[in-house]
Prior knowledge:
Blueprint: E1 2-3, E2 14-17, E3 23-29, E4 34-35, H1 37-47, E5 55-60, E6 63-64, H2 66-75, E7 77-81, H3 82-89
Parallel strand pairs: 3-5, 4-6, 5-7
Antiparallel strand pairs: 1-2, 2-3
Helix pairs in contact: 1-2
Amino acid sequence: MQAIGGAGDLGADVVAYTPDGRKVVIQCKQYRGKVASPDLQRFAGTVFNVHHADVAVLVTTGTVTTPAARLAKAAGIEIVHADRLDRWADGRDQPPWHHSRTPLPPEGGP
């Protein structure tokens, strides 16, 4: 796992790898309000093509607008709200890559 957020991060705050080797790119939004479509559009525009993610996750302390949620679903980005993050951290929920539509690489690697 590597935290890389900050100026010039191109939408990636954390890059990590699943136990089976898939690359997870996480964008964090500490918002009291709503994450809107422009935020998701920027992340969707870089997460797969620039960062080459296998799994894309947006973590937020706020909520996500309906258009942003639709875009995330269409783009294959998992949304993790604070309550789900808490459940994931204490083992009550599976990590986001278990929910991802990204298939596992074929046996023997990519």
